[in-house]
Amino acid sequence: MIRPAAALLLLTAFPAGADCITATESFVACKMSGGSKELRACWGPGSVGYQFGPEGGEPDLVISVPLRDLNYIPWPGVGSSIWEEAIFLNADVQYTVWHRIDRKPEGDPPSAGVTVTRGDETLADLTCDPGTITANFEGLYEAKTAIGQCWRDFEWQDCQ
After folding, report:
1. Which burial class, exposed, middle or buried, applies to 74 when counting CB atoms under 10 A from its CB (0-12, 13-18, 19+)?
2. Over the stretch 44-68, which tens digit does the pLDDT of each residue have?
3. Where is the signal peptide (predicted)?
């Protein structure tokens, strides 16, 4: 679970068209609102970032947390779709970045997005524009295990 004090809202400006804050590898990237907004969630050495804002411009919101503290829920291996999510905190607001891929070829197309909540209240539920989604949570899983964490009992723990 992310400790609220571990989440850091970065207010620095990024140049237009900048890569994700960690500048290493995106695990979700897409366009939203007809291409006018973009979402990026990425990981790099020791940190994980989420950013959202106008396409090709400075992000409206950037959140970075230590990789060790990221609340990331990998696919449990069952069900008709493969899904995963990463949860970022900014004070009392939670940003759940998710993706879903139907396991059946004739199933629904891939989808992704972000759900923004405060307590039990949903503030926004934004879905990526079809055909713009890039998702690769596998690298994030490998990054968590590379720092000595194991997914056990539905949470990330230090491997023993």
Report:
1. middle
2. 888 999 999 998 888 999 999 999 9
3. 1-18
Give the whole-angstrom CA distance, residue 41 versus residue 56: 15
Question: Distance between CA atoms of 73 and 90, rounded to whole angstroms?
Answer: 18
pLDDT category of residue 129 using cuts at 50, 70 and 90 = very high
pLDDT digits (tens, 9 = 90+) for 84-124: 999 999 999 999 999 999 988 888 889 999 999 999 999 99
> Widest CA span of the chain, in angstroms?
47
